[in-house]
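Render this sequence as a predicted structure.
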Amino acid sequence: MRVLIILPTFNEAQNLKGVVEKIINLNLEADILIIDDNSIDGTREMASGLIEKYKEKVFLIERPAKLGLGSAYIEGFRFALGDNYEYVFEMDADFSHNPEEIPVFLEAVQSADVVIGSRYLDGIRIMNWPLSRLILSYAANVYARLMSGLKLTDLTSGYKCFSRKALEALPISLIKSNGYAFQVEVNFWCRKLGLRLKEIPITFTDRRAGSSKMSGEIVREAFFLGLKLLCKRCQMTK
């Protein structure tokens, strides 16, 4: 079973080494692909050191600018498809996603095409977020559900496992969202294509170090994606 874990990074030098080593210490048949958006805090240098230490287990794609989360994952998906990985993870590199939950995803994906780690499936399982951020996240999920028609509890979750079948089916060249709207758009396509989506509960913990990448631009992108998905739903029912 060949597994690839994609870790997009932008200024994650304080977190990256710990996350990678925690994944390695799970002793899974898993490789790690770091996709760095021109970090200026030493993240790239740290990634190079990890590649040297864990030869043929850790890989790095260096990008020339801050090109965004969505395009990083698209690049990672192409890497995975080109190198014949069977299962592919999306995962944050800041410890907000617990690497120890990876085996649970791998078990769940045996009966699904895409497994989504939900922060809301079994109550609210979010640690150390300010109330304002929690309200924003919850409201974004309610909005995304209404506009997309998807019956998922956490459409914006960034902790996921895809089967190869799912990645081969996704029209990745058509997916343009870059912030957390990317997760909603991918979920929408997966459901539209008839893929089996399964949610499992995860515990999400706010990043250990560094700053959040949330911005007004990301929120606006998600708002307009919702309108676009609603229009697509209306066209599909005609």
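Summary. The chain has a mean pLDDT of 90. The two ends are 42 Å apart (CA to CA).
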